[in-house]
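stuck on this one:
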Amino acid sequence: MTRGQPSAADDDALIARLRARAWDPGLRLDRATLPAAWIRESYGADHLDRISSDILSYGSNGTVQLASRREEVTAYFADAPRGPLFAPLSRTDVDEAERSLGRRLPRLLRRVYTEIADGGFGPDGGLASLARGNRAPGHLHDWTSAVDVHERNRAVDGVPASWFFLTGGGCSMEWYVSLAAVDHPVLLYDADGWVADWGEDPHDGLRHATASLRHWLWTWADGDDVWEEVLARQRAEE
């Protein structure tokens, strides 16, 4: 992160920075999907071979995934329309979601959902939606609803009601924000990192806590990796 510890006084600037990235189809997630044929046509027939180590995945439909800040991504989406993947919610929509959750969301997170988008952007897999039934173009399944995850986690795994699901982190890792703790730290949780039969509970699956939701969002808005803090800590402990 390139800033000091952010404060609420910076929130207008944070919302503007998040919106600019969330409404850019090439930057709204940490990785972007491009047609392999377009890359060959634009950069040469051997370009994919030359950048093979940087290709994150290959699609069966002739696409490749690259880190969103690569020059190929910037060029491909240069003239694409700007706008949210999922439209922002009304305050009434957020109030209804909070009634379902039985919890109030942090003011900053309410602003994210009402002023930027109903999820569909952000670190890792992108923020979950509050509403149900959002579906990205070309996808076969609806975007994850944080309300659905909240209800399932409480019923099945006993995840605390004060943990609000933000996004998946790959494999069994998940990002949550604490709705109860001061400054609303963001929690990295390993869903497979605890065993009930051993007398453990979801708290034993916690692997990292970022200082605040504001800090976590600024890290991504600045183009940095929210995992870097986690990995730096792991390196320090080795």
